[in-house]
Amino acid sequence: MEEENVKLYKWLSPFSLIYGLGVRLRNKLFDWDILRSKSYDIPILSVGNITVGGTGKTPHIEYLIRLLASSYRIAILSRGYKRKTRGFVLATHSSTAREIGDEPFQIKHKFPEIVVAVDSNRRRGIEKLMRLTPEIDVILLDDAFQHRYVAPSTSILLSDFNRMIYEDKLLPYGRLREPIGEKSRAQIVIVTKCPKDIKPIDFRIISKRLQLYPYQRLYFTGLCYDELIPLFPNEIHNPISITNIKKDKALLISGIASPQPFIQYIQNFVSKIESLCFPDHHSFSAKDIEKIRNRALKMKNGNTLPHIIVTEKDAARLIHNPHLTNEIKQNLYYLPLKICFLQDQGTAFDAQIKDVITKNRKNYIPKTIKTS
To answer: Which residues have C-beta within 8 Å of that of residue 59, sequence separation ≥ 6?
Structure first.
């Protein structure tokens, strides 16, 4: 949490002043109703941040899905960052990461019964979802804190514990998309990626420095990893477990904003690791796959390649990659990720979310759960 851990580019501070003027003017136009936000007759939960880079939006969206899916018909709407398509796209079981983006693909792959759509114009996307799937009860907006043309029922703002928003500066001096004061638009603030050994005094310091309003609730979450899963199960004859590879070697591949928690976690279980880190949302080319293969061959123990472990987000980009060789597929695993609430806050968070849905849903009819 120390300020010196946040890398800032002071020579770019004049440009931050110009950027900040533009952002403040845009927000004022919405505050003054010159630019209009639109509300809808359906609960809309927005999950976003005011920083560039990963704060854990996707695992928090997945938490909401697990929380609500048994009682409500859910739709996810994302912009589909770095997809190769345009406009509104309703995901199907055959959609690829290139068509809908890696995070929406990951969600659709993990929760196939959930409605997933992408559209950079969130208002248009909401209206098309309501028209094409009128049975939905709740819409979850992914990365939509800056999309003020939509007025969500509640807004959830995420801040990375390792780079708190009150230690950061506006782009390009720092990584803030908006001035820190805009956090006031959120009803819920979650400090993400908290370490397991976080001290009680840290909770108090963060709460004080965030300076939240009485109507805002503050929560803390950490990352919880699941068991390793083969990306190509039909290619792997003897699947491994994270707990029985202590004497093995592993090559870690990541194309995410903050790979350190992933790398540090695997280090607890493997005797020797090497890592290849690519930019966030990286699209793996034939040259990249060859680089991965060559690194794996250098780590080879006799005739055995190391375990090649990727993040769940990278798995979404690799599963349809035509350049993967059979030898890579036979050693390729991904590490699923979940969030867990600290301080036993999960119950209070769950109740708050369900209360928001109840208060914002008109003519709600409970979802019928099929029983065999």
So the answer is: 223, 337, 338, 339
Closest CA to 81 of 223, 310, 288, 282: 282
Q: Which residues pair with 116 in a beta bridge?
A: 76
pLDDT in tens, 191-219: 999 998 899 999 999 999 999 999 999 99
CA distances from 178 to 16, 154, 230, 320 (A): 10, 19, 40, 36
In whole angstroms, what separates CA 296 from the centre of its chain?
Answer: 28
**For residue 42, how many other CB atoms are within 10 A of its CB?**
20
Give me 86's structure tokens.
């345009």
pLDDT at 5 over 70: no
The H or E element containing residue 48 is strand 44-48
Tokens standing for residue 50:
């005011």
Q: For the residues 216-244, what does the mean pLDDT come to?
A: 93
Task: Read off the amino acid at residue 224.
Answer: C
- Spatial separation of the C-alpha atoms in residues 262 and 269, rounded to whole Å: 12
Radius of gyration of the chain (CA): 21
Integer angstrom CA distances of residue 329 from 95, 207, 256, 257, 310: 21, 46, 21, 24, 12
Q: How far apart are CA 95 and CA 83, in angstroms?
A: 11
Q: For the chain, what's the residue count? A: 372
Enumerate the β-bridge partners of residue 176: 51, 170
Each residue of 289-303: pLDDT tens digit? 999 999 999 999 888
For residues 194 and 49, what is the distance between their CA atoms, to the nearest angstrom? 16
How many whole angstroms separate alpha carbon 238 and alpha carbon 123? 48
Residue 294 CB neighbours (<10 A):
10
Angle formed at CA 235 by CA 308 and CA 322, multiple of 5 degrees: 75
- Mean pLDDT rounded to a whole number for the chain: 93
- Rounded to whole angstroms, the Cα distance separating 107 from 226 reads 16
In the sheet with 229-230, reading across from the earlier edge strand, the strands are: 229-230, 332-335, 307-311, 249-254, 272-277
